[in-house]
TrEMBL record, chain B:
Name used for this protein in its record: Protein phosphatase CheZ
Organism: Oceanospirillum multiglobuliferum
Entry function: Plays an important role in bacterial chemotaxis signal transduction pathway by accelerating the dephosphorylation of phosphorylated CheY (CheY-P).
Subunit description: Homodimer.
Gene3D superfamilies registered for this protein in UniProt: Helix hairpin bin (1.10.287.500)
Primary localization: cytoplasm
Site positions (Enhances dephosphorylation of CheY-P): Q186
Length: 126, 262
């Protein structure tokens, strides 16, 4: 599975990358905001997107909305990992079509649980 | 503010003079002493101007003090313009905090990345030895195999000793990497103090400016707060307990999402 990790802080990208590796996902790529992520997503055949919300350039929320409006990316599973904790933001992300939402700080167990849940649902929908 | 500023005292003095002169002015006008009345108007006007000059002077001095307190480079003094202002200095300090925390996080992760395979290797070796050891206990081992096991156990013990040493070194490096907290803490306290000083000076300036407004009769229209974009990112919530519009952790996120049918 090919995964794109989008976060403006390299340390957070590294943490997510390492946790994903421990879960057996070794094919991970990185981008530091929505604007760099988009062209990678368009051409890279990614199977899964993990993105932060608050980033310069293009936020993760805008990236989510852009993906959902793109016929090629509209069903790409997207997990948001963010410090944004306002209820209205979580509701907005859900309405925009996010597949999972994790608030920072988070644990390895939470990441594992959410990823498993996302793929379980996708399997069920098939 | 508990104490009246010198400016406030000045303007109440002006108010007093204005009140006294007004009743006198009406009297003079009613009794037809117009020359006296005009002289009175002149006196009120002079008094107002005098107060205005005083207030503007005070305001200018306060502004100047505030500027020199923050060492803001106003660009008037040539060589001093190379000197860094405290504000720029504060930005540098905060960048230092970002750099230090990032370095510490990377050092810690480097050491974890280095240590995890060591622990994995020791576990794998121990696991393999334990399987062979069980065969030995069950007397299923040929003499050749036993000689090999004998050598491997010796290797394993030596390896374990060496690898444990590297693990201990890495743990101690991880511990030392947390030393940033002391340094960044000191820097942050300095910046917090500066922000508080600036806030205090600005409040004082606003108070003084309001005296000038009072004398000149300037009215400010309330500036509307810039509209916040819907769902604009706010970053980490530092006072989550005092707020009802934010979740306090992952459990609340999950509850909220499941209430939406997620």
């Amino acid at each position: 599975m090919k995964i794109l990790i989008v976060d403006d802080f390299s340390t957070m990208r590294r943490i997510v990358k390492n946790l994903l590796r421990d879960l057996g996902f070794t094919n991970t790529h990185e981008a530091d905001d929505g604007l760099t992520a988009l062209p990678m997503l368009e051409t890279g055949n990614f199977d899964f997107l993990v993105t932060d919300w608050n980033m310069p350039g293009m936020t993760g929320f805008d990236l989510l909305k852009t993906c959902r409006a793109d016929p090629k990316l509209k069903s790409l599973p997207i997990l948001m990992v963010t410090a944004e904790a306002k209820r209205e933001q979580i509701v907005a992300a859900a309405q925009a079509g996010v597949n999972g939402y994790i608030v920072k700080p988070f644990t390895a167990a939470v990441l594992k649980e959410k990823i498993e849940k996302i793929f379980e649902r996708i399997e069920q929908a098939k | 503010m508990a104490l009246k500023s010198p400016g406030a005292q000045q303007s109440s003095e002006f108010e007093q003079i204005l009140k006294e002169s007004t009743s006198e002015l009406i009297q003079k006008v009613e009794s037809g002493e117009l020359t006296d009345a005009v002289n009175l108007i002149q006196r009120i006007s002079d008094e107002r101007n005098r107060n205005l000059y005083l207030e503007v002077g005070r305001l200018t001095r306060a502004l100047h003090d505030a500027i020199s307190n923050f060492h803001i480079d106003v660009g008037v003094s040539g060589p001093a313009s190379e000197e860094m202002s405290q504000i720029a200095n504060a930005a540098d300090r905060l960048n230092y905090v970002i750099r230090m925390t990032q370095d510490a996080a990377n050092q810690t992760m480097d050491k974890v990345d280095e240590s995890a395979p060591i622990a994995d290797r020791l576990r794998d070796q121990a696991h393999a030895l334990r399987n062979d050891w069980a065969r030995l206990v069950r007397r299923e081992m040929k003499p050749d195999e036993f000689r090999d096991l004998y050598r491997r156990i010796d290797d394993f013990l030596r390896d374990t000793e060496d690898q444990s040493d590297s693990l201990s070194r890495n743990f101690s490096d991880i511990l030392l990497a947390q030393g940033y907290q002391d340094l960044t803490g000191q820097v942050l306290i300095k910046v917090i103090t500066l922000v508080q000083e600036i806030e205090e000076s600005l409040v004082n300036l606003v108070c003084m400016a309001s005296q000038v407004d009072q004398i000149t009769g300037i009215k400010h229209e309330k500036t509307a707060k810039p509209e916040v974009e819907a769902h604009a990112p706010e970053g980490p919530i530092v006072n989550a307990k005092e707020r009802i519009d934010v979740v306090s952790g992952q459990d609340e996120v999950d509850d909220l999402l499941s209430s939406l049918g997620f």
